[in-house]
Design a protein that fits this description.
Blueprint (H helix, E strand, L loop, with lengths): L1 H15 L2 H8 L3 H7 L3 H16 L8 H16 L2 H12 L4 H28 L9 H17 L6 H14 L5
Helix pairs in contact: 1-2, 1-4, 1-6, 4-6, 4-7, 5-9, 7-8
Length: 176
C-alpha cells in the first residue's frame, strides 16, 4: 500500500490522490487502508517517510564532517527524485493543512531529527564536539533548516551543504 501510494503521489500529486485510487493500485479495499491509516495525510506521510528513510540512510563514516557530507549528498539526490518533489509539495500543502503538517512533523521530520542526534552522539563519543554542545538544539537547527528550505521552496544544493559544514565546524566541532 505504501508503494502504491508513493507511485500515485509521483503521478498525480497530493491533491488529486484518493484512497480509492490507492486501494485500486494496491489491490486492497478502502476499508483495509482505513484500518491502518486514519486519513490520506497519515498514509501519504508514512509512505514518503518509509521510502525516504531508505533513500537517505543514517551515515557512519567515522567523522562528523564525513557523516554530514554523506547525509546531505543523499538528501540532495533524494530531493532531485520524483519522491523528493512530492516531499516539497507536501511541505507547501502542509501550510494550509494542519493534519498534514502534524503528520509531516511526527513521521518525517522527527526521523530526520533522530538521525542528526545519533550522528552528533557518535561525533561526541569520538571527541569531535566542543564540550557541552547542545545536540538537541543542533538537531533542531539542522531539521529546521531543511524544512525551511523545502517550504520556501529554496534550493537544497551544494552551497547549502558547504555552508552547513562551515557552520558545524565553526560552531560545534572542537578546534583541531
Amino acid at each position: 500500500m505504501l508503494g502504491a501510494t508513493a507511485a500515485l503521489l509521483c503521478e498525480v500529486g497530493y491533491g488529486a490522490l484518493t484512497m480509492a485510487a490507492v486501494a485500486k493500485r494496491a489491490k486492497v479495499s478502502k476499508a483495509t487502508i482505513y484500518r491502518w491509516w486514519r486519513s490520506k495525510a497519515a498514509l501519504v506521510v508514512e509512505a514518503v517517510s518509509t521510502l525516504a528513510s531508505g533513500a537517505v540512510p543514517e551515515p557512519d563514516t567515522g567523522s562528523l564532517e564525513g557523516d554530514v557530507r554523506v547525509a546531505l549528498a543523499d538528501l540532495l539526490a533524494f530531493m532531485g527524485s520524483p519522491l523528493g518533489g512530492v516531499v516539497e509539495a507536501l511541505a507547501v500543502a502542509s501550510q494550509r493543512n494542519p493534519e498534514l503538517a502534524r503528520a509531516l512533523e511526527e513521521n518525517f521530520l522527527a526521523g530526520r531529527r533522530e538521525m542528526v542526534t545519533k550522528v552528533l552522539g557518535r561525533a561526541e563519543a569520538r571527541g569531535e564536539l566542543r564540550h557541552r554542545v547542545d545536540k538537541e538544539l543542533v538537531a533542531d537547527v539542522a531539521v529546521s533548516l531543511l524544512f525551511y528550505r523545502i517550504r520556501r521552496p529554496a534550493p537544497i544544493d551544494r552551497s547549502l551543504v558547504d555552508g552547513f559544514i562551515r557552520l558545524l565546524s565553526q560552531g560545534v566541532q572542537r578546534a583541531t
